[in-house]
Amino acid sequence: MYPEEMVKPMRAELSDAGFEELYSAGAVENAIAKSGTTLVVVNSVCGCAARNARPGAKMSLDGQKKPDHLVTVFAGVDKEAVDSARGFMFPFPPSSPSVALFKDGELVHMLERHHIEGRPAELIAENLKDAYAEFC
Fold this sequence. Notes:
This is BrxA/BrxB family bacilliredoxin. Belongs to the bacilliredoxin family. InterPro entries: BrxB/BrxA. By secondary structure, the chain is of the alpha/beta class. 46% of the residues lie in helices and 20% in strands. It is built from 6 helices and 5 strands; from the N terminus they run H-E-H-E-H-E-H-E-E-H-H.
């Protein structure tokens, strides 16, 4: 677990952009069960979350189509919420950072760490925009 004062600015980067922070399994279950589309970002303290995942997720929201709901959980901090989110991402193995798009509770698009690490935020944003065009 990471100290809250360390992760606070990393959480704020997404919450300030409109992402709801989820801290419990119940909150994750409720968020994913909502009708429409839900983007789930598994946030992390790693460099690829800072350089690629968070900026890419935020940039992806500047297009015409975007998810109905934006939520985030924090790996290494919110264990219950992260475990629950990862359960919905099965059969993909646990990965952080990662980004998943759900439509009416069904996983329809997934970006694992290996899709994020070493790729520019702009490419991640374009990947997500393509998914929004198809599913949102």
